[in-house]
Design goal:
Blueprint (H helix, E strand, L loop, with lengths): L1 H9 L12 H15 L3 H8 L3 H12 L1 H4 L6 E4 L5 H7 L11 E5 L2 H11 L4 E5 L12 E7 L8 H11 E12 L4 H23 L2 H13 L3 H11 L2 E8 L4 E7 L2
Parallel strand pairs: 1-2, 1-4, 2-3, 4-5
Antiparallel strand pairs: 5-7, 6-7
């Protein structure tokens, strides 16, 4: 039964919170969920990841430092949440870059409001928008990153297609997200992620369902092999996945030809 469930999750089309039967209801459910947990989101991220989230963001941002260092590069942090990945990217942006040093998009109003507090002293433009319908022209961005948000999209293939659309030729994607490891590490990961994390997260946030959704969303998210297939099928080239912390998270990279 486990292998059958894993196979089904591996080929899932997008996030499906409990009770969401369509892409539209899934998106609405996820949006409401993140609005609900926004007040405790940063605290719980740091607590439940034992501080590893900061290292993951910093490591991923450093990978793109050469692009970020280009003054004329338009850079988007997608599903930015409260903006921690955005701030990690900002470290490598040149001083005094024009009107928008960084663009930060999220469809959760409450998450974005908390992000704006971090962005206030920086040249970062916060935009409330749907990741599947981005308000940017074709071929205009040099880099799009997404940290721990892509797996919440209602349709992964449509999400990749939208990233491909807005990137200019030679533009890159960097998708940092959780992964379900195998073997002994996977067993320990499941014990923590499915039994301990939902209890702590639910108790502190007051939203137990949101922290039950978290491990379910990771289990449903495509494994690296399948995700790389989807990235290639979208039209990207040079797709790769680099595992972080025993494969519990990792960074997908690819380039638009």
């Amino acid at each position: 039964m486990t292998s059958i469930r894993q196979h089904e999750h591996e080929y899932s089309t997008g996030a499906r919170p409990v009770g969401a039967a369509t892409e539209e209801s899934a998106a609405a459910n996820v949006q409401q969920m993140f609005d609900s947990i926004a007040p405790k989101y940063d605290l719980l991220n740091h607590l439940l990841s034992v501080g590893l989230d900061r290292w993951w963001w910093a490591r991923a941002a450093k990978v793109f430092r050469s692009t970020l260092a280009q003054p004329d590069a338009r850079v988007l942090d997608l599903c930015c949440g409260t903006g921690d990945m955005t701030m990690a990217l900002m470290k490598y942006r040149p001083k005094g870059v024009g009107e928008a040093s960084l663009l930060a998009v999220d469809f959760s109003h409450e998450m974005l409001e908390r992000g704006k507090q971090k962005f206030a002293k920086h040249n970062i433009v916060a935009i409330e928008a749907d990741a599947l319908h981005l308000p940017f022209e074709d071929g205009t961005l040099a880099l799009v990153t997404s940290a721990f948000g892509f797996r919440n999209l209602a349709n992964y293939e449509d999400g990749l297609a939208e990233l491909y659309r807005v990137l200019k030729p030679g533009g890159q994607i960097g998708i940092l997200d959780c992964n379900q490891p195998e073997g002994i590490v996977g067993g320990l990961y499941n014990l923590y992620f499915k039994q301990i994390l939902p209890r702590i997260g639910g108790m502190i946030s007051g939203d137990r369902e949101a922290y039950r959704y978290l491990p379910a969303s990771v289990e449903r998210f495509p494994r690296p092999r399948r995700m790389l297939e989807m990235i290639h099928a979208t039209g990207f080239r040079d797709a790769s996945w680099t595992g972080y912390t025993f494969g519990t998270a990792g960074l997908y990279r690819a380039t638009k030809p």
